[in-house]
Design goal:
The protein is of the alpha/beta class. Helices cover 22% and strands 19% of the residues. The strands form two sheets. The chain has a five-stranded parallel sheet with strand order 1-3-5-6-7, covered by helices on one side. A two-stranded parallel sheet has the order 2-4. α2 links the parallel β6 (78-81) and β7.
């Protein structure tokens, strides 16, 4: 079973990239790429580290990561969406970020 996804030289990452055999993934690390968009699928409930540092993510992508992971109702992980030209989360993403933090997640954003 795949437990880690680590990538380089990417510009887009969408649900279509992932497949159902990856539901045991615990780590997603795509730091310092050219990512402008990310769409995480539901079902990655074992994630405990998600890092998209130093990319070019838009607010919709930042919100998607936060809201999707918040929907898993898990605790005690790490999410980093800071650096590069990543956008700040908007209202829905901020609410999800605050809920994640209340459940023991460490979350960094712009």
């Amino acid at each position: 079973n795949i437990k880690e996804l680590i990538g380089g030289a990417c510009s887009r990452l969408s649900a279509g990239v992932f497949n159902l055999n990856m539901i045991n993934v615990e780590v997603i690390n795509f730091n310092s790429n050219l990512l402008s968009a990310v769409l995480l699928p539901a079902g990655f409930t074992k994630l405990n580290l998600v890092s998209f540092v130093n990319n070019n993510l838009d607010a919709a992508s930042v919100n998607n990561v936060l809201i999707t992971i918040n929907g898993f109702n898990t605790s005690g992980g790490f999410i980093s969406l800071s650096g590069g030209t990543n956008a700040a989360p908007t209202a829905g993403g901020i609410a999800a970020k605050n809920t994640l933090i209340s459940r023991g997640w460490t979350v960094t954003t712009i």
